[in-house]
Amino acid sequence: MKITTLISTAFLAVAGLSAIAEISFERSSCPIIVVAEPESHAPAVSVVMRADFVSVPVRVVSDQKNTSAAYEETRQAIDLVARKAKESGQFRTTMGVVSLSQHRGGFGLSSGSWSEPAASAEIYLLVPFSTNSGSIFEAGARAARFVESLSLPGKIKCELGRLQLAVENPEQYRTNLLSWIRDDIKKTRETMAPQSDYTVAGLESPVMVQQIDDRNVALFLNYSFSVSEKK
Questions:
Q1: Which of 58, 78, 87, 224 is most buried per CB count within 10 Å?
Q2: 15-34: pLDDT as tens digits
Q3: Domain segments of the chain: what residues?
């Protein structure tokens, strides 16, 4: 499973089976927010629950041709988004990917000129679900209105990324999941091969989060269970 860990301004991606994100908001005693992506399969043992947040990636891009000006404008814009979000009391924020390079220009093969911005950065808005009746659409609209209301510096523009559901501290459900997995393995052995040997792997993996619909997620452990005949 691809795991993206965002801690303050650091970004790390690890390849694997699908994708989740762990976002920490402070360096000490920080809550962990795991962002879900849709899955194509339904895990055998899972807990279905309401999501806690909608994660809204905001990409900040500077169109400045001057490299140092692009860097400075991007920093100012990120600080502005974080400050205004905190002042509003509606969102949590955390940093994502920061890409800094010299401005590049040239010509495309089919449509005239193109350019690569010298600076771009991502900041995540986490919109809490205020009530059980809230939806990803309402949360996304709140985030969009917030971004549209900002007076951005210079030649900065903001683009919203894909909205995803998120859960706070899914590890708190590990004990329940392990108990249900144990019961499921016991039933499987009794039905298929009660006298056979069996192997379980992957129980140490992090609790994964799978998006089910526009409001609900499933939490599960990515484990494997195999049965072999005794010799």
A1: 58
A2: 233 333 444 333 334 568 88
A3: 51-166
